[in-house]
Amino acid sequence: MLTLVLGQLVWALVLQWISLTKGTTGISGIKVPQFLMGFSSPNVGFYYFTLVISYAVVIGLIAINKSPFGLKLRGVRESESRMKMLGYNTSFLKWLAFMISSFVASLSGMFYVYYSGIINPDAITLNASNQVMIASIFGGVNSIFGAIIGTGIIKVLEIVLSGITQRYLLIIGILFLIVIVFAPKGVTGILESIWIRFSKDKQKSEVKD
Question: Average pLDDT, whole number, for the chain?
Fold first, then answer.
């Protein structure tokens, strides 16, 4: 919640600092870096560059998640008071986690600007921040792939439902509430439960055979 509040402060600053940000008009004419212009098409080079960086980020986050540092972060998430009793500086651990997540978010924001060629205050509104949070919870907050899956689902729903009705955000909100109530672990939690049940049924059938 504190991050959302700070985001709104930055949005207000960007909206009013017209000499730098051009206000609601935004900064336009942003082009893909020159070192990607050597391909037959700039979009092709930018696509592959984004793909490689995305894979590197995912692999890096998985490595962090499986490292001792990731184990400490999970400990802070489950019981911060217990981690403090064990002698860990939980404030520093949370600060490092925030810095890592901010770095990943800044990379995605940079690629978004190069992709669209324009940046304006609408990109950092409360609605945009909420979409990221909803996508993460929808996919599964305890999974890196959950965030990816959740974002894909939300974007597909937006594209499909926006062509059917103007109240598509209401439908997405209802689906979000259903997921929170009936599947707190998100889509990845549902898939994991299905896989565990399938594995148990398979083991039972093998034992019978």
Answer: 81
CA separation, residue 137 to residues 8, 152, 155 (Å): 21, 13, 14
Name the residue with tokens 């083991």.
203
Contact at 8 Å (CB) between 138 and 177?
A: no
Q: Which helix (H) or strand (E) holds 118?
A: strand 118-119
How many C-beta atoms lie closer than 10 Å to residue 114's C-beta?
A: 18
The whole-number average pLDDT for the span 27-51 is: 75
Q: For the segment 91-143, what is each residue's pLDDT rounded down to a tens digit?
A: 999 999 889 988 888 888 888 888 888 888 877 777 777 777 788 888 877 77
Residue 99 φ/ψ region, left for φ over 0, alpha for ψ in the -120 to 50 degree band, beta for the rest: alpha
| Cα separation, 46 vs 55, whole angstroms | 14
CA dihedral in degrees (160, 165, 170, 172; nearest 10)? -10
Q: Which of 131, 130, 150 is nearest to 140 (CA)?
A: 150
At 209, is the pLDDT very low, low, confident or very high (cuts 50, 70, 90)?
low
Please give the Cα distance from 69 to 58 (Å, whole number): 16
For 202, the token pair is 């398979």
Q: Report whether 151 contacts 108 (CB < 8 A).
A: no
What secondary structure does DSSP assign to 28-87, as a single string?
E-----GGGTTSSSHHHHHHHHHHHHHHHHHHHHHHHHHSHHHHHHHHHHH-HHHHHHTT
